[in-house]
Write a structure and sequence with these properties.
Elements lengths: L9 E9 L3 H11 L2 E4 L13 H23 L18 H41 L2 H15 L16 E8 L1 H15 L3 E7 L4 E2 L6 E2 L2 E8 L1 H13 L3 E3 L5 H57 L3 E2 L5 E9 L3 H12 L7 E4 L17 H10 L10 H16 L2 H16 L4 H4 L4 H8 L1 H18 L16 H8 L3 H6 L31 H34 L3 H32 L11 H10 L13 H49 L4 H20 L5 H25 L2 H25 L5 H43 L16 H5 L1
Antiparallel strand pairs: 1-10, 1-11, 2-10, 3-7, 3-8, 4-7, 5-6, 9-10
Helix pairs in contact: 1-7, 1-8, 2-3, 2-7, 3-7, 5-6, 9-10, 10-14, 10-23, 10-24, 11-14, 17-18, 17-22, 17-23, 18-20, 18-22, 20-21, 20-22, 23-24
Length: 828
């Protein structure tokens, strides 16, 4: 847990990997997930790297795996998860996996092709049987005998042109949505010189492509003349109709139908054998594909990592650079030695200096991951910067609970999160694919603390589903007020509202032991009292939270050796913040402790005092809280204003002076070098040349100071901090506003639902029948409105308070995460 407060120390290491053992070493590093490789071939195209051929072979295998996986899903099967820990296979196994994969894919293609061909043949046989068995023949035969009598002309043309014409038939099947268009087109193209009959098949036939049952339309067309027959055949071809031979004799059709049924039976047996063989092939795919996918994915990742390495001049080893945590260096060295022992030459690891900012590494567990995610959503911290996540574990749920304080609502949220925590190790819970559920499950510990803190603040507000609870005796006595004030029946009848005077002896017995006194829930001025209390509480919490953020910046300055920022930035910021708004917190606390119930009526106004503080004036009607208050207020305002130029100009002027001092130190050795170069001795000249060479790296390390940029950056920081202290303090009033909104929504929901249900009947049976739907509606609206909607609103406002008001006091968030080369991500 120590690394949670600041990111771990990360160093840049150089790895010398023997060529024969490079693959094994990188594979072992992928299993451990310790290092993040740097690309040493950034200027080299991806197609010109050393292991590009191996990467392409892995990609080709992945394409084949995708085909096999789709075939398994097409068959309605699922791939089981791989069993055990699968290591990256040796390079020699790639050829074996590729051959077996190609063989499986070819077998699957052949069997699937045979299956499709057999299904298409069976489909055509079934359609042909349906056409022959639909009964078109008897109807059209009758039509054929009656039709010449109807159309027999009165005067027969000489020569008997129609005597040699015979009736021909075209029979087939078409999809139902094309039948109407086909019939219209046939009638118009042939000008009515045909007779067409369309009927639906009695049974649905399986589609050979999709496998879904579908209804087909069978048709039988009788026509006269060869030209009309050619038109009909062309039209049916355009509509992609199945056309089958059709004879006039009933006996021939019956024999053909029996023959078709026998062929269908034989084809179904062949198709069954084909499908059984297909299931065997798919079973082999289910058994072999999952481990192959993992192994090839790991192999591809290894080759991609090797492509980031450079080759030594002797081509005997690969050189890699990687970021690694300092505490993982012994583990890294041991892993490389074990992996390269078979090659006869051990891999070498050594640290190298680097001017680049290292990545940020903060290890988390299932409890701290959600809180670290809140911080990283704002921005990943710079290397070795103070991490706000440990403090967010307490402050975030607490600020949420201030806006969501209710014992009942907090308890429901706590129980929901507790159920997820207790079931976190169950596979069904972990593998759930619902995105909303995954969001809740990932933040289960955050929800747990949010619910627990909400129960705590609910006890402080004394609210449970908007109802007050009398855990302890009230600090107010109505009986004492009635006895000493002489309230008669006539007085009570004329005054519906009664006031309790704390100055009367025995009326106010003392403060409530914990939280708000439950008698305030009966008072008319209940809302005014809570508004005053929550508004002042919000200011106190806000100023304390911001001050804590400024104090955390001290640890950043001490760690990075920026001692000047303690006096030129942190100290002025604390004086400005505490001199103005810290004084406001002091006034609130002092008034709470100093003013008692007896003097509450004549208590001075803090708001007027705070306004007069900036105006350097006083109000005769508003008495001071303590002696010498005006002098203290004037002094604090002057000190706060005096810190602004220090905050604005202090750091730039200090950096300018420091830069001039370093420049003067660098110029003096250069003057000595020029004197030595003027000496005619060759050895002295060579000595001066060597000194120049030795000094050049130091010159490169110096970064030129651009004073205008420093002034601009400091001016932005000063304006942002000074104005932010005012706006951020006002922003914390959202704690009061959201808490008030939550309490009022709870009150409205209780009054509009439960109170109406409880007052609808006095008899036990009526109440029991009425309360069931009433309570169901109350429960649904409580969860939907108060827990989900109000909870999300309070969560977003607490998120804003941490990002904008708290973290910007010390946290830059301009770093980048350490992304180690690990197979765990590949497996997911």
């Amino acid at each position: 847990m120590g690394s949670m407060f600041r990111s771990e120390e990360v160093v840049l290491v150089q790895l010398f990997l023997p060529t024969a053992a490079a693959y094994t070493c990188v594979s072992q590093l992928g299993e451990l997930g310790l290092v993040e490789f740097r690309d040493l071939n950034a200027s080299v195209s991806a197609f010109q790297r050393r292991f590009v051929v191996d990467v392409r072979r892995c990609e080709e295998l992945e394409k084949t795996f995708t085909f096999l996986q789709e075939e398994v899903r097409r068959a309605g099967l699922a791939l089981p998860p791989p069993e055990g820990v699968l290591l990256a296979p040796p390079p020699r196994d790639l050829l074996r996996i590729q051959e077996e994969t190609d063989r499986l894919a070819q077998e699957l293609r052949d069997v699937r092709g045979n299956q499709q061909a057999l299904r298409a043949q069976l489909h055509q046989l079934q359609l042909h049987s349906a056409v022959l068995g639909q009964g078109h023949g008897s109807q059209l035969a009758a039509t054929h005998t009656d039709r010449p009598l109807e159309r027999n002309p009165l005067l027969q043309s000489p020569g008997g042109l129609h005597q040699d014409l015979r009736v021909n038939f075209v029979a087939g099947a078409v999809e139902p949505h094309k039948a109407a268009a086909l019939e219209r087109l046939l009638w118009r193209a042939c000008r009515g010189f045909l007779i067409a009959s369309f009927r639906e098949t009695e049974q649905q036939l399986e589609d050979p492509v999709t496998g879904e049952p579908a209804t087909w339309m069978t048709f039988l067309i009788s026509y006269w003349g060869e030209q009309i027959g050619q038109k009909i055949r062309k039209i049916t071809d355009c509509f992609h109709c199945y056309v089958f031979p059709f004879t006039e004799q009933e006996e021939a059709r019956h024999g053909a139908l029996q023959q078709l049924q026998q062929q269908s039976h034989e084809l179904q047996e062949v198709l069954g054998e084909t499908e059984r063989f297909l299931s065997q092939v798919l079973g082999r795919v289910q058994r072999l594909l999952p481990p192959w996918q993992v192994q090839i994915r790991k192999m591809k990742a290894v080759y991609l990592a090797l492509n980031q390495c450079s080759v030594s001049t002797t081509h005997k080893c690969l050189i890699a650079e990687a970021w690694c945590a300092t505490q993982d260096l012994p583990t890294l060295q041991q892993a490389l030695q074990d992996s390269s022992s078979e090659a006869g030459v051990s891999a070498v690891v050594h640290r190298i200096p680097c001017r680049d900012m290292p990545p940020t590494l903060i290890r988390t567990n299932c409890f701290t991951a959600s809180f670290q995610g809140i911080v990283d959503a704002y921005g990943v911290g710079r290397y070795q910067e103070v991490n706000p996540a440990p403090y967010t574990i307490i402050t975030f749920p607490f600020l949420f609970a201030v806006m969501f304080g209710d014992v009942g609502h907090g308890l429901l949220m706590f129980l929901f999160a507790l159920a997820m925590v207790l079931a976190e190790n169950q596979p069904a819970v972990k593998m759930a694919q619902n995105e909303i559920w995954q969001t809740f499950f990932g933040g289960r510990y955050l929800l747990l603390l949010m619910g627990l803190f909400s129960v705590y603040t609910g006890f402080i507000y004394n609210e449970c589903f908007s109802r007050a609870t009398a855990i302890f005796p009230s600090g107010w006595s109505v009986a004492a007020m009635a006895n000493q004030s002489g309230w008669s029946d006539a007085f009570l009848a004329q005054h519906p509202l009664l006031a309790l005077d704390p100055n009367v002896t025995g009326v106010f017995l003392g403060p409530y032991p914990f939280g708000i006194d439950p008698i305030w829930s009966l008072a008319v001025n209940h809302l005014s009292f809570l508004n005053s209390f929550k508004m002042k509480m919000s200011v106190i919490l806000g100023v304390t939270h911001m001050t804590f953020g400024v104090v955390l910046g001290v640890f950043n300055h001490l760690h990075f050796g920026q001692w000047h920022r303690l006096l030129l930035e942190t100290l002025p910021e604390l004086v400005f913040l505490l001199g103005l708004f810290g004084y406001l917190v002091f006034l609130i606390t002092y008034k709470w402790l100093r003013i008692m119930a007896a003097g509450a009526a004549s208590a001075p106004s803090i708001l007027i005092h705070f306004i007069n503080m900036f105006l350097f004036s006083r109000s005769p009607t508003n008495q001071p809280l303590f002696h010498g208050q005006e002098v203290v207020q004037s002094t604090l305002v002057v000190l706060a204003l005096a810190t602004v130029p220090v905050l604005l100009l202090g750091t730039p002027l200090f950096l300018r002076r420091q830069h001039h001092r370093r420049s003067r130190r660098r110029r003096q050795p250069n003057e000595d070098k020029t004197r030595l170069l003027d000496v005619p001795d060759a050895s002295m000249a060579n000595q001066g040349s060597d000194e120049e060479k030795a000094e050049s790296p130091g010159d490169q390390e110096e970064v030129e100071l651009v004073l205008s940029e420093v002034f601009m950056h400091q001016a932005i920081h000063t304006i942002e901090f000074c104005l932010g202290c005012i706006s951020n303090t006002a922003s914390y009033l959202r704690l009061w506003a959201l808490s008030l909104a939550h309490a009022q929504l709870s009150e409205v929901l209780w009054a509009m639902v439960m109170r109406m249900g409880l007052s609808m009947g006095r008899e036990m049976g009526v109440v029991a029948v009425v309360l069931v739907p009433i309570f169901a509606a109350f429960a649904v609206m409580t969860v939907a409105i108060l827990l989900v909607m109000e909870g999300l609103s309070a969560f977003l406002h607490a998120l804003r308070l941490h990002w904008v008001e708290f973290q910007n006091k010390f946290y830059s968030g301009t770093g980048y995460k350490l992304s180690p080369f690990a197979f765990a991500v590949e497996d997911e």
